Amino acid sequence: MKIVVILPTYNEKENIALIIAALHEQFRKIPHDMHILVVDDNSPDGTAEIVRAEAQNRPHVSLITGRKQGLGAAYIRGMKHAVNDLRADAVMEMDADFSHKPGDVPRLIEALDKGADFVIGSRYVPGGKIPEDWSFLRRMNSKWGNMFARYVAGMSSVRDCTAGFRAIRASVINKIDPDTLKVKGYAFQISLLHEALLNHAVISEVPVEFVDRKRGETKLGISDIIEFMLNAWWIRFERSKTFLKFAVVGALGVAVNLVSFTLLLKMGLNKFISSPIAIEISIITNFLFNNFWTFSKRDMNDRIHIRGLKFNIVSFVALAVSYTTFLVLSMLDPDGIPQLHQAAGIIPATLINYFLNSYWTFKE
Ligand code: GDD
Ligand code: MN
Which residues span the domain enclosing 149? Predict the structure, then answer.
């Protein structure tokens, strides 16, 4: 396997040569073709010059440079270069400042070898650590960031969502297409993780100890924190889109149902026959929209004909529920407006439709 360790750098002249040397030390223990890709954003301190000098003596070191747009933007460029140009089978994310111990790299890669697609060097699983001397504020900042990611963005299955020490298979990167991630700063970490989860990547958290940098200073800024929080809410909104789509389809179904019913009545059909026909028509259009729109991104086990069969069963259950409601209301209120009775039947039928279809027909 060819593995490219991506090191984003901005003013890391004191760390970069040391980290490259420390990584090479570790590479000897790893049974893979290991490379380093430094993504430097024209650091004014001359980090890139040091990397160029290193690359002269070490064939497995490369450098790309660019305009400073943020940590996420640097990783996006780095991942694309690693996968498309260097033909990496996997990439790693890692700080260039020794926050992440080079000695932990082999363990992260072992987890890849064991079958994981997305390995996280995690501070918040048993055995993982944050620096003992972190101030209350610093701890809270990190904890809150994770709380936001886990409970606002909805990634509660992962303990350390914001970690910047990870090993990721190229197949995951290819599925995601990092260019579609609109985040520039540190928020990139949760966006990438979220996309990986949506794509059913096998996630594995390996405990690591996070160490404070000894040289240079952190680049995390207020704009990163703001982007991070907005991004968590954005992810939340994107997630609930499925429900919104289902509701839109449902509303469309109501219109189809009532229009069909009215047309059938106009054609002179008896209302007791028109009702189930109109229900069936709306259920079929609902299914088509849900199949090709609402749930189109779901990775479903069932083949289309099984889904079709399940859909029919759900349809009959929903039809029965809807028609029963219509019959009961027609009996209770024989002179009432038939459209109202028909509309009332839609409510329980839609609920049953949603649950059975979401958890059975379109089950992931
Ligand atoms: N190219 C480039 N461009 N590199 C950058 C930029 C940028 O705009 N901003 C930061 N970097 C580089 C730094 O030079 C360093 O190598 C690495 O990215 C991480 O930056 P730090 O400033 O050391 O981040 P940190 O230690 O505060 O944050 C770490 O922990 C976070 C979670 O708590 C990182 O690992 C983050 O990725 C992680 O989210
Ligand atoms: Mn750091």
Answer: 2-220
| DSSP 8-state symbol, 210 | B
The Cα–Cα gap between 86 and 90 comes to 11
The strands making up 90-93's β-sheet, listed across from edge to edge, are 61-65, 33-40, 2-9, 90-93, 166-169, 118-122, 203-207
Q: Residue 56: its pLDDT value, please? A: 95
What is the C-alpha separation between 7 and 63, in angstroms, rounded?
Answer: 9
Tell whether pTM > 0.70: yes
Mean pLDDT of all residues in 315-339:
91
Q: Whose alpha carbon is nearest atom 25 of ligand 1?
A: 218
Residues 200, 256, single domain; the answer is: no
Q: What is the CATH number of the domain that holds 148?
A: 3.90.550.10
Lining ligand 1 with CB less than 6 A are 8-10, 12, 39-41, 68, 70-71, 74, 95-97, 99, 142, 162, 164, 186, 189, 213, 218-220
- Residues 160-178 pLDDT 10s: 999 999 999 999 999 998 9
Contact by Cβ (8 Å): 347, 254? no
